[in-house]
UniProtKB/TrEMBL annotation:
Entry similarity comment: Belongs to the ArsC family.
Listed NCBIfam families: arsC_related (TIGR01617)
Annotated source species: Helicobacter brantae
Full protein name: Arsenate reductase family protein
PANTHER family: ARSENATE REDUCTASE, PROTEIN YFFB
CDD domains per record: ArsC_family
PROSITE patterns per UniProt: ARSC
Entry-linked SUPFAM superfamilies: Thioredoxin-like (SSF52833)
Gene3D superfamilies, sorted: Glutaredoxin
Amino acid sequence: MKQIFGIKNCQSVKKALDFLDSKGVVYEFVDYKKNPPSLELLKEWVEKRGIEKVLNKKGTTYKALNLKEKDLSESELLEVMSQNPTLIKRPILVDEGILEFGFCKEVYESLC
């Protein structure tokens, strides 16, 4: 079963959920403000897709923590992300062999 990780009030997550609902796709939603991904899961995602795909540099949390000015290693960034899940790009679509960050209608159509 597909899993969607995200935050309910995020516009990108809402678009993804609306899209999946409109296509009748069955999925499990994981609100990562309430159930943040473990550090191990974050490491796995970064190993598969790279830190640039996983880290949300456009969000307010990234700016508030001044991460652009800090020279953090990948492991330090992972630690900060595990403590601040809003630093993770969203939504995250996980299914057999699929790990997609962000919502792009065309990509979702090809995967669903």
